Amino acid sequence: MMARRVLTRFVNKSLLEAAVGAKGGRIRGSNRFFRTSASWTVGALGSGRAAFLLGLPVLSGLSYQAFRNLQSSAVVCALDKDEVLEQADYLYSCADTEKLYQLLLQYKDSEDAEFLWRLARASRDLSLLPDTDAGRKKQLTFEAFEYAKRALERDDKCFAAHKWYAICLSDTGEFEGVKVKIGNSYIIREHLERSIELNPKDATSLHILGYWCFAFAELPWYQRKVAAVIFSTPPTSTFEEALEFFLKAEKVDPNFYSKNLLMLGKTYMAMNDKEKALHWLTKAKEYPIHTLEDKEVHKEAVELLNQL
């Protein structure tokens, strides 16, 4: 029982929970925006704990006025698949969560993975809104997982289906207990790796996997020991491995995300490389502030620079 109690701290710190900003901090950059909540199952960055984050979608070429025209109707209508997906991606980039959900819900019985993973993402985003009550949040969390699961069943070569399956599986762990949550971490990593294999250019998948590695790398020895009481071989990683994924994400899309810059600085700090830590933390501090998440990253970067 004591082991489980201690391990609970570890789980709150190291498995996916949703990433930063209830209404949604967003990762800017091509093909990888993803909504976040308060800790992608890894905890809050602001408190120094690893926060396993995720991403936000592509900005469409549609003009602002075109979007305003879309808003004028209760439900966005489209003539064909491509148009629906374009509208869905734009609504997502504009954080119009409720309208996006209603649009995609019309395709809940679709056999097309492109509709299903987007519906999983929209359901998850809706569950993270601050005005969503606990019962509705749980319903949407499991609904999102089912859509992601179906997307994967329809097309197991779709990188986004693997990514959102991993994210949504992590979310369900919040309702299923510590043991299940830790056990799911193996599956989560497996699907993130598959997502990257299918699309090596997806910076957010690389970033998320880096977070996964960082979370388990920074786990204190005594918590590793406790985890081993429940799991003979608990998840492990190293800062070197985390660094590899953060650097790959940066190489794929330089400066795409303030938190990736921050995590590079924190990883170099953990590896006692002060010079490189200063470099990346300075870049994180100087990153333009567009979202609440950027503001939080800026604050933490300043605090860490003061420590150095």
From TrEMBL:
GO MF, one term, reads:
microtubule binding
Report the main location listed first in the record: cytoplasm
Which keywords has UniProt assigned to this entry? Answer: Cytoplasm, Cytoskeleton, Repeat, TPR repeat
Q: Which Pfam families match?
A: RMD1-3
Where does it localize?
Cytoplasm, Cytoskeleton
Q: Which InterPro entries match?
A: RMD1-3_a_helical_rpt, TPR-like_helical_dom_sf
What are the GO cellular component annotations? mitochondrion; mitotic spindle pole; spindle microtubule
Q: Which family does it belong to?
A: Belongs to the RMDN family.
Q: How does it assemble?
A: Interacts with microtubules.
Which PANTHER family did the record assign?
REGULATOR OF MICROTUBULE DYNAMICS PROTEIN (PTHR16056), REGULATOR OF MICROTUBULE DYNAMICS PROTEIN 1 (PTHR16056:SF16)
Return the protein name. Answer: Regulator of microtubule dynamics protein 1
**Taxon lineage:** Eukaryota, Metazoa, Chordata, Craniata, Vertebrata
